[in-house]
Design goal:
single chain, about 80 residues, alpha+beta, Gyrase A, domain 2, four-stranded antiparallel β-sheet, 2 helices, 4 strands, about 30% helix
């Protein structure tokens, strides 16, 4: 499984909408925008905590920004 596939698996498990914004597969660095799906009433902090848990378990660094000025729920930089 590639790094990108693992990231997709994690984000699909948490059931969020995501988009890769900037990636460097060679350096294993990924910038991702994450939003909750319509009707998802989970608190943003809980969603972020769950995502962070999966990423850190998979040995990724996880640097997040919540409620960005662009209107995204979570903007995250992950690196392995």
């Amino acid at each position: 499984m590639t790094e990108r596939q693992l990231i997709q698996e994690i984000l699909n498990t948490v059931d969020v909408i995501y988009k890769f914004v900037n990636t460097d597969d060679d350096k294993k660095e990924y910038e991702i925008v994450i939003n909750r799906q319509d009707g998802d009433n989970r608190p943003l902090e809980d969603v972020n905590k769950e995502i962070k848990h999966y990423f850190t378990d998979a040995n990724f660094s996880y640097d997040e920004k919540l409620n960005t000025k662009d209107g995204d729920d979570i903007h995250v930089d992950v690196k392995r």
